[in-house]
Amino acid sequence: MHSFVRRSLSFSLGVVYFTYVLAPIFLILVGSFGAKWFGTLLPEGFTWSWYKELFSQPMYIDALKRSLVVAFLTVIGNAFVCLPAVYAVHIIDKRWLRSLFNFTILLPIAIPPVVMGLGMIQAFNWPGFSLIGTWQILVVAHMVYTLPFMLRPLMANMDLINWKTLEEAGASLGADTMIMMRRVLVPNLLPGLVSGALMTFAMSLGEFQLSVMLTGSQSQTYPVVLYQAFYVSTGFACAATTVLAGLSLFSLFGVMGLGALFGKSGHKQTLFGS
Length: 274
Known about the structure:
By secondary structure, the protein is mainly alpha-helical. About 75% of the residues lie in helices and about 0% in strands. Strand 1 (about 125) and strand 2 (about 130) form a beta hairpin.
């Protein structure tokens, strides 16, 4: 009886999840291949024309390239910021510093992107000097917005390794600080670094509120021009949305695959890449 109830509950939750989460994504995918979609649950006909039109318009191609570049630079920037930060918090090992670290992680999540965008408009819009409307300010904004998604997996990874033992072993072999950082710390933090990079990339690629507030006509990202696609046609908008969803899901599956890989093989500490 209890087994039947559990199965029924699991099935019901699965149906609800599919209806409210997966079904809209499925409909967008189907709609991107529909020749006509108006007033019906499913589109009519089949066509590739929406994708051909999408990839033939320079505005969308340029915006997609710009989003990929911004997301890539956001990952690189966050890696350079987060690696030293995680190392310092772990080595100093003070409760107040760990609390400050956790607060820093939660702050970008707690503050709405519109508030962050307004703050950056005021902070970087001076007479004779303004970064508003440039891709540079967008990279900075995305770095702040995605900071928790890089810091959290790196700190979790750092807490798993016995860094004190590795550091003592490296020192006994004559390794200086730079060698320890390059050949010991980074290889041991690689699972957290890659996981954080994929999540950061996906979050930056799909971010809309900061992008629409901080970009100009020459620096719009793909989510911003995607919003304009809904004024063209339903099929065209579905095709543009499917491209963005596909890139984001690719990053998500990368994180899941990485977690399964390291979960199966186990995390092994390495000294000098051995």
